[in-house]
Amino acid sequence: MRTRTAVIAYTALGALTVGAYFSVKDFLAWPTHRYIVVSNVTVSYVLALILVGVLSPRITRRIWPKAPKWAFAIVAVGLALAVVGILDLLGAPTRL
Amino acid sequence: MTGSKLTTLVVGAVAFAYYALLSAKSYTWVFVSYDSGDWLACANWWMVPQPYGSPLYILLCRLVGMFPGSQAVNMTLILSVLPAAISVALVYAITIKLTDRRLIAIVASCALLASVVVLTQATVVEQYSLAVMFLTLALYLRLQGRPKLTALALGFGAAVHIIVLLVAVFWLVADYKYWRRNVRAIVIAGATITVSYSFILVLMAMDTPRLLAGGLSVTNVLDYITTTGGAVVGQLSIFELPRRVWDMFRILLVSLGLTIVPIYVGLRGSVPYLKPALLGTVAAAVGYYFICVDYTTWTFLAFAAPSLAIIAGVGLSKLHPNHTKVVLAGCICLAVLNGVFMNADVLTRQNPVAREYYNTLKGMPAGTTIVVNAGYYSLGLFYALSTGSDLVPIIHPYMDDWEFEDYRMWLDETYGLGSWQGANTTDLVGLALMRDPDVYFFGNDPELEKCLEFEEVGNLRKIVGVR
């Protein structure tokens, strides 16, 4: 890392840290109640769908190197059901 | 003793002194240590604590509860401050093994010492510090090439806090290429966790107060697991994500400060043998906070802190030595800032709400009924009950939303309220008023408060009737 880049990075980080410190210290010490927006579209599902999208072609290619595209879809559906099952066990809502 | 071992001890001793100085010296709710009432009750009573049980932690609470002196101080020092200091020393030991540079190892341990997410949990009665210590010990043992002991440490960690089980799963996923050599370790960790959590089933089978779990049955076990945990885990709405990202950004920034630069460099390079475990730990902790509805679960980020400190150490070893000095100065500044603004002792003395609540309960005449919301007020009430207060605990919404029948039956057997199956909170309050007019309400629940008639007695809210 170049000296100039390092100086800029540390100065910016230092300033940001001090700013963040004073904006968050009361929240950490005595958080006041705040209402949370509730929806069936959870972060868990979005992450799970991304995970399924990344994993299904890789798994299919591993077990069946010349698999046609419909095989990816079957693995993706299977994975999605498994993930939804796990999320359901964890307590996430069961429908999008 | 070699120089390195002596330095490790000195680092641990300095961390212990720092955390002990800043630690709360009485019962407190600072830094979201709302569960402390539950753990303090477990020091006096055999009872099933909040889900998911933390069996090893409550066993240690019971042990420390036998020591003379203030329970809150003993538990803070032995079960929070000491494990946090050991974690700091372990980070030093791991980093010096990885980098072979003493100053860098000291900076890595300072980064953990000054990390706000660790400090906040190291200075109050909570189980995070102990679980983080076992997790850091697992990292150390893994680096030493001791897979069985690593698994045992992970098992003990999971017996203190269930999130360590999630971390262990992330380790396995990150380490999937070597799954064959991990089979024995999985068996050891699995056996440790199973045996530990069987203790919770034993407590359910015993004649323990039915305050958080019913008697041993499949339905009660499932209810126990899902009643509170199932309401928050994994349910963060996508619409709340920007706010959560903003909170996480700020919390990580104040916890890491200037170490973000070496962490970035460390993540780009290799960390011998440990990288999958370090990344798995960070992913599990950050991922949990990302999907959990409860905005106070930033405390889980404490699990990621030792891994990030180690990665920072590795990153510093790849940078010019001047970076080490700058980052060390940043860590010292953070440690000083924490001493002023994140001092649990000072914050507790400024706002002694938990201690005042406990003292109020202790001053109540025998037979007084206390109506509270489930949460920190009910856990504080359990603490007072466990220290011998003769109070009737009516907890909302045990009989409304939760339909906690074993609790109602326990209330009847213990206090003779004479309730019936399906009775709700207001029915129980009505029965209590017929027995004794001393019925007080603590908490904040607009829906329940609409159904009750109050009279102000000093700072207290006395219930005089049911609508």
Assembly type: heterodimer
Radius of gyration of chain A: 22 Å
What is the helix tally of chain B? 23
Which outline of chain A best applies? flat
What gap, in angstroms, lies between the N and C termini of chain A?
A: 46 Å
Portion of residues within helices of chain A: over 70%
Low-confidence runs of chain B: none
Side-by-side strand order of the widest sheet of chain B: 2-1-3-5-4
Any low-confidence stretches of chain A, pLDDT <50, length ≥5?
Answer: none
What does this entry look like structurally?
The complex is a heterodimer of chains A (96) and B (467). Chain A has 96 residues and is mainly alpha-helical. Helix content of chain A is 73%, strand content 0%. Chain A has 3 helices and no strands. In chain A, helix 2 (43-63) packs across helix 3. The longest helix of chain A has 27 residues, at 3-29. Chain A starts with a helix and ends in a 6-residue tail after the last helix. The mean pLDDT of chain A is 84. By secondary structure, chain B is mainly alpha-helical. Helices cover 64% and strands 6% of the residues of chain B. Chain B has 23 helices and 5 strands. Chain B has helices spanning 3-22, 36-44, 55-65, 71-99, 102-113, 116-122, 128-143, 147-160, 163-174, 183-205, 218-227, 229-232, 241-256, 260-268, 275-291, 305-317, 321-341, 344-350, 353-362, 376-386, 405-415, 425-435, 446-450; strands at residues 369-373, 392-396, 439-442, 452-457, 460-466. A 5-stranded mixed β-sheet of chain B has the order 2-1-3-5-4. In chain B, helix 20 links the parallel strand 1 and strand 2 (392-396). Chain B is globular and about 75 Å long. The model of chain B has no long low-confidence stretch (mean pLDDT 93). The chains are: A mainly alpha (96), B mainly alpha (467). The interface between A and B is large, with 34 and 50 residues.
